Amino acid sequence: MWVSVPVLAKPRKHGHEKAIMTQNASANLVAVKQRVDHALSAAGRPLDSARLIAVSKTFEAQEIMPVLEAGQRVFGENRVQESQAKWPALREKYPDLELHLIGPLQSNKADEAVALFDVIQTIDRPKIAAGIAKAITESGRKIRCLVQVNIGNEPQKAGIEPEKADAFIQSCLKEHRLDIIGVMCIPPVDEDPVPYFENLKRIALRNNLKQISMGMSGDFEAALAHGATMVRVGSAIFGTRAKP
Ligand SMILES: *Cc1c(COP(=O)(O)O)cnc(C)c1O
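That is the input. Now the predicted structure with pyridoxal-5'-phosphate docked in place:
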């Protein structure tokens, strides 16, 4: 059951993934942006062909502020409730920021997610697609969405199975009338991500979708070499979390 959190409440810390270090976040941002540019150049891609999403989950407003002041405007969060506690106040100061939901979504949080986020990257099953579509209609907001693909077919991970992705994407577009702009994935850990990046790119291409959200702190350069248009980078900017 959703309990509303006052706008200025301190974000709740989740014991299992407590933020432990944010010194130099703005310097880290500069370094990550240079690495993104370098990876794009090396791949022969224009520098504006991919966007950096700064993943600020577990970090508090005061830790995010220096990164906003350094000019970053696109952020990713993985929990609706945590985001509601910290982002409305930040958005008042920085009205041009763009917030992406990159974490699993429950259908009972659809209204809250649609009220807060600009882009929802984790549409991964019909019930969520229907719930988000309904919430968008009711709110009148324009929300762009990505379909999350469980690219490694891992039972513990969210996402539509790769072999069902085409049909699901088409039903999101045609039945649910969602503004699906791309696909997103998190490849299996401790494996070469490149074959998974390549497969996500193929899914995007054959469904005519422009946005490919893949690559995190450990592998964003490889993702950019294989076509990522959005990289989601957390710890390389904000510092390590106790648990990713
Ligand atoms: C936490 C998270 C990231 C960022 O991970 P880092 O390794 O800290 O860069 C990217 N994508 C998703 C979906 C995440 O949950």
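Residues 1-22 have pLDDT under 50 and may be disordered.
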